[in-house]
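We were asked to recover a plausible sequence for a given structure. The inputs and outputs are reproduced exactly as logged, with field labels preserved.

PROBLEM: sequence recovery
POSITIONS: 337
GIVEN STRUCTURE:
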């Protein structure tokens, strides 16, 4: 158990969910500190019925903190994580900054829990679009060894923060009223539209969000031979990312076998009956820590392909829940030493 824990970025959307999850899941600790930028420091947070003052993020605050869960922009994580690690505080980091550092394990507890054992003070949580995909890939990879993945995402506006969600609502109202609206989070209107670019142009015509899906997937499975071809699209959905995924395996897996494998995997729920129009949809998955899978079928264009549809709450399993599950894993690991 960690006696003194902290949430870094405690006042942000994911920070708020981390607080809620620590309370819901009765995470063990003796002291908790809520850290944020100078702008939010001094405000108060009510947690487990008690008022806490938000403390400014500075190096010395980590002197008496054993475990910090951080949800901050990359540049903040670049700065604060070394402050914490130098003071023997373990950090679970949600940002993208440390994920591909070879010394930093990148962990989804249902997929590669063993990776936490090698940590040197920092453990990263993957990008939301990767997390739900690797969770779905795990049972298929174990059963048939995945060689190739083609994925198209339909990502919610909450992935672009609170401004992304308000752009969807205010942009929709303005569109229907025939008014102009100045979008803050997106380069194009998201209301009644799809935007096939998330992140910046990285390499060979792929975006940063797409390349995260490639590199993070290979790191989590410890297998650079898994080929991933992603297309990431912003959709006019408030919360929960959806993904159309096709995996090709070395050994054939039938649709029936895939359905059974998914159903037996912790963290996955199968909703799959086309005749009753039953499949996961973002509006039904919000607020759940599970990843939902439906539309499971065999690929008509190659021998060993399984296609499916995957939906998950990107703020929960895609961010806050995964980080809190990593913290719970560290507590369990410490108890078994
Ligand atoms: C997005 N995946 O949806 C990003 C957030 N980390 O924009």
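RECOVERED SEQUENCE:
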């Amino acid at each position: 158990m960690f006696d003194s824990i902290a949430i870094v970025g405690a006042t942000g959307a994911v920070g708020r969910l981390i607080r809620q999850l620590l309370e819901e899941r009765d995470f063990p600790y003796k002291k908790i500190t809520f850290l944020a930028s100078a702008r939010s420091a001094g405000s108060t947070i009510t947690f487990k019925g008690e008022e806490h003052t938000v403390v400014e993020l500075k190096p010395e605050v980590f002197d008496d903190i054993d475990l910090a869960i951080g949800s901050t922009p990359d540049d903040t994580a670049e700065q604060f994580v070394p402050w914490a690690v130098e003071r023997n505080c373990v950090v679970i980091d949600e940002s993208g900054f440390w994920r591909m550092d070879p010394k930093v394990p990148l962990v989804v507890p249902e997929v590669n829990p063993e990776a936490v054992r090698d940590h040197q003070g920092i453990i990263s949580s993957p990008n939301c679009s990767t997390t739900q995909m690797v969770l779905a890939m795990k049972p298929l990879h174990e059963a048939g060894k995945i060689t190739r993945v083609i994925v198209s995402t339909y990502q919610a506006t909450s992935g672009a923060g609170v401004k992304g969600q308000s752009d969807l609502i205010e942009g929709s109202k303005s569109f229907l009223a025939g008014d102009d609206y100045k979008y803050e989070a997106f380069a194009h209107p998201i209301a009644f539209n799809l935007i096939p670019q998330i992140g910046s142009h990285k390499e060979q015509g792929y975006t940063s969000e797409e390349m995260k899906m490639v590199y993070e997937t290979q790191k989590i499975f410890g297998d650079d031979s898994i080929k991933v071809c992603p297309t990431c699209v912003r959709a006019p959905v408030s919360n929960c990312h959806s993904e159309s995924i096709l995996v090709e395996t070395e050994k054939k897996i039938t649709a029936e076998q895939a359905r059974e494998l998914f159903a037996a995997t912790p963290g996955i729920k199968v909703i799959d009956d086309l005749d009753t129009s039953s499949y996961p949809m973002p509006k039904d998955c919000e607020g759940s820590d599970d990843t939902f899978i439906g539309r499971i079928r065999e690929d008509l264009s190659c021998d060993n392909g399984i296609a499916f549809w995957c939906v998950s709450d990107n703020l929960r399993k895609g961010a806050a829940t995964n980080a809190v599950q990593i913290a719970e894993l560290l507590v369990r690991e410490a108890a078994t030493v």
